[in-house]
Amino acid sequence: MIYLESRTVSRMVVYFEDVEVGYEAELGTYEMSKAEIVEFAERYDPLPIHTDDEVASQSSHGGVIASGFHTFAAANRLVTDQFKSNLAVVAGLGIDDLRWHNPVRPDDVLTVRMEILEKRRSEGDPSRGIFRLEVTAENQRGEDVVSFVDTGMVRVRDSDPAQ
């Protein structure tokens, strides 16, 4: 089954039935520039460790690091672009087990991977299915930087629950 078909060629719609438990994919890379780290932090997480070279250089990290929420957002962007953009999404239901493992520094390149952990029909609406996927991002040194479990609801192609 092809999940990562290029959206520039054609748009494939992936339904609940198409999502296979155990499916794994590398979703691509994302480079965290210093300018983007500072810009995100100034807007959403304005701690000096993310925005001020002088203050950050005196910290245990020895320099500016990305906000954890920026790291999460970058990983989620690749999940959205490479997987969810073709998925028949109804709604996001939540994020569980969000963990920041190591700091992200300017010019780190994150590689994002996902695995479908489970899926089930919605108990209240047979035209909907629920899936959980684990997302992990690591830096170019092979260190995990963020991981989380994403739960979402998608449309079912065939709403007969016996299928």
From TrEMBL:
<protein>
    <submittedName>
        <fullName>MaoC family dehydratase</fullName>
    </submittedName>
</protein>
<dbReference type="InterPro" id="IPR029069">
    <property type="entry name" value="HotDog_dom_sf"/>
</dbReference>
<dbReference type="InterPro" id="IPR052342">
    <property type="entry name" value="MCH/BMMD"/>
</dbReference>
<feature type="domain" description="MaoC-like">
    <location>
        <begin position="29"/>
        <end position="136"/>
    </location>
</feature>
<dbReference type="InterPro" id="IPR002539">
    <property type="entry name" value="MaoC-like_dom"/>
</dbReference>
<dbReference type="Pfam" id="PF01575">
    <property type="entry name" value="MaoC_dehydratas"/>
</dbReference>
